[in-house]
From TrEMBL:
Keywords: Signal. This is Endonuclease/exonuclease/phosphatase domain-containing protein. InterPro entries: Endo/exonu/phosph_ase_sf (IPR036691), TAT_signal (IPR006311). Residues 1-33 form the signal peptide. The keyword Signal applies. It comes from Actinokineospora bangkokensis.
Length: 270
């Protein structure tokens, strides 16, 4: 027969048991299991303005940049010509959501997001107005996406196109206020997404061959260390999503001097 204990002893024992149970729960709860790795090809593609007949094949070849559907940040879409939205929709098909492609103001820098990624948020940010004969208005576009079957696997993609001629070409100092404002705004948007605990990728035509990083942070990584077309990423500070760069390559577009640049990543929840 179990011996009797008095009320004070029972309360003392009960309190200790509760503390022990609480400690046990904390110690015994395993960390969430990491998800499987998911392949993620990411492309930055300035379609160009010169050999317009080559745009259709170029868009087709960007879509075929990898066996896994690539996520694409575009630049110079519908900039002084027409037909590119229809070509993108034709070659990319129903498995894509082409965000900003027909946006009223930010249409020059759309982002094509393939299944299995689901767009959960979008944001356009105005940078500066146009300059006659020099530059259209400049915008930054961004999307937040999650995997359709792995809800915790989320990240942001930011896409943009800086003014030309400030730090390349003519090296015109009168354009550097606009370029520098763009760099600051770009930095602010990357940091804003990162502060939400997200992995952040960005794609851009920076129009600066000496471009370093959007944020200047040591944690920001570069897929390409030279040229004006860049892909960078900033891992989440909380470690919620892991990312690895597997490979890089280029896709010839033959429209003007730009080739599409491709970075093959894999991502998973931690």
């Amino acid at each position: 027969m179990v011996g009797k204990i008095n009320r004070r002893a029972a309360l003392t024992l009960g309190g200790a048991a509760l503390l022990g149970a609480a400690a046990g729960v904390g110690a015994a709860t395993p960390a969430s299991a990491a998800s499987a790795w998911v392949r993620l090809p990411l492309v930055t593609a300035n379609i160009g303005r010169k050999n317009l007949a080559a745009r259709g094949p170029a868009i087709r070849d960007v879509r075929a940049a990898d066996d896994t559907r690539p996520l694409v940040g575009w630049q110079e879409i519908s900039e002084g010509d027409s037909g590119e939205p229809a070509l993108i929709e034709q070659h990319f098909g129903s498995a894509y959501r082409n965000t900003f492609l027909r946006h009223d103001t930010a249409f020059r820098v759309p982002i094509s997001v393939p299944a299995p990624w689901v767009v959960v948020d979008t944001k356009p940010t105005f940078v500066h107005g146009g300059i006659a004969g020099v530059s259209p208005p400049r915008w930054i576009t961004e999307v937040v996406v999650r995997h359709e079957t792995i809800p915790g696997l989320q990240f942001a993609v930011i896409n943009t196109h800086y003014i030309a001629g400030a730090y390349n070409g003519a090296q015109n100092p009168d354009l550097r206020d606009e370029w520098n404002l763009h760099k600051q705004t770009h930095r602010d948007r990357v940091i804003a997404q990162h502060q939400q605990g997200r992995l952040v990728f960005w794609t851009a035509d920076t129009n600066n061959p000496g471009y370093d990083k959007a944020t200047g942070q040591d944690a920001e990584r570069k897929a390409f260390g030279s040229g004006i077309d860049r892909i960078d990423w900033l891992p989440p500070g909380n470690g919620s999503v892991q990312v690895e760069l597997l490979n890089t390559k280029s896709v010839a577009m033959d429209v003007d001097g730009h080739d599409a640049r491709v970075a093959i990543f894999r991502v998973r929840t931690a």
